[in-house]
Amino acid sequence: MKKIIKSNKILRRGFTLLEMVLVLAIMVMMSTYLYSSFRVVNYSHLKVAVVNDMHDYASLTLHAIENHLINATSIAPGDSIKLNADSSGVVIDGAEALPGFKQYHVGNNAAKWKLSLNFKADAASKTVTVTIKMTDNASPDSGVSYTDQITVYCAACRADTFKAVDAKSIAYSNKPVPKKTTTS
Question: Over pLDDT 70: what percentage of the chain?
Answer without folding.
Answer: 89
